[in-house]
Specification:
The protein is an all-alpha fold. It has two domains: about 45 residues; about 50 residues. It starts with 13 loop residues before the first helix and ends in a 6-residue tail after the last helix.
Length: about 90
């Protein structure tokens, strides 16, 4: 069997490759999901950070806001929050 533009003798049909990758996809999703969960447990230390993470997810998934805009908003919130904590004496070194 030969496909247009192929010069090799061994040709693997694209449907075979797609079928193999289709079977691997759930395992990859499970591994990435578990890694994201573990990172979230280590980094999201208070309810404010959990709310910000959930709001970011909703902004991307539902409202399709571009990632750079979400990143800038998170940086601004972090800057304002850090400044407010240092002014009001709740900052821990």
């Amino acid at each position: 069997m030969s496909y247009p533009g192929s010069t090799s003798r061994l040709v693997i049909p694209p449907s075979l490759v797609a079928g193999l990758l289709y079977d691997i996809k759930p395992a990859v999703i499970a591994i990435v999901g578990q890694a994201a969960y573990r990172i979230g447990l280590r980094t999201l230390k208070n309810s404010g950070l959990w709310v910000m993470a959930a709001a970011s997810f909703v902004a991307i998934a539902v409202f399709q806001i571009p990632f750079p805009a979400i990143l800038l908003a998170a940086a601004l919130i972090g800057y304002i929050g850090g400044h407010a904590r240092s002014v009001y004496g709740r900052h821990k070194p």
